[in-house]
Give the backbone structure.
Amino acid sequence: MPTDLPPAFWIAWWGVFGLIVGSFLNVCIHRLPREGQSVWHPRRSHCPKCGHQITWRENLPVLSWVLQRGRCASCAWRIPWRYPLVEALTALLFALAAWRATVGAPDGQGDWALVPVWSLVLAGLVVATFVDFDFFEIPDEVSIGGMVVAPVASLLVPALHAETWVAQRFSEGAEVDRVGALLGCVAGMLVGGGMLLAIGKVGSRLFGRDAMGFGDVKLLAAGGGFVGPGGAAAAMMIGAILASVVGLLNLVRFTCFSRQRARARGATKSFGRSLQSGRIAARYIPFGPYLGIGIGIVLLDWNHVLRLLRLLLQG
Ligand SMILES: [Zn+2]
């Protein structure tokens, strides 16, 4: 990167690029889980309600949605606010990745090479998260794609595994080299995927149903390739805590909701039966989104996560 311009300029520019990528991620989120639809074809998107072809003017990230007040220009169909949300979120994550990898690096030693790799991982996580919310599945394009990209990225940008213990251990010098980074990546994929696979096996023995989707196993295997074995374990813990909190909130919400509905119908519903319907609602929360958030947090803020872990475990 040319250094005669301040880093803030490049970070802002990368954020704007994130807006455009976010627009493409919307297409991926919509088309990847649907059989027989290609991300590349048709190039132009259509309004799902009236089939109106969206012009470039109506396709400006966030801006078009605001200008059209969230409606299709042709039929006034309400465009879900998720579209501008995904675009704004991607822009924010890209800017954050650019800042974190450069001027915001903990040792003050920036590395611009990390920016495209981290951004690619974050883009994949955004797609996995939103598709999993809708379809309870994680596209193989993201999970298996990540497992293919991780070793290549580790070879190209060994700094990716600067905090990975395995990578440090097997590197020759003080800095992580290519061999070390590759070993850290492979160890991360094995530990990430292996942990969830083992938990899933134990879970299905205990509860007699599939506790863990195989999509989650593949996602954490891919994530582990970028954050290493320790990072994968931390990402899983963060994901589990988040999913438990959301599950608990769902349990409370649906238990109350179910009682309220029964009362509105004039029927009396026992607390036990309300709790039952709440429990069913809490059971069906996808794990992928929370796992994705965990991987994202570790990716961008591994140092803080490490410090917190030390604080918790060592007192
Ligand atoms: Zn329309």
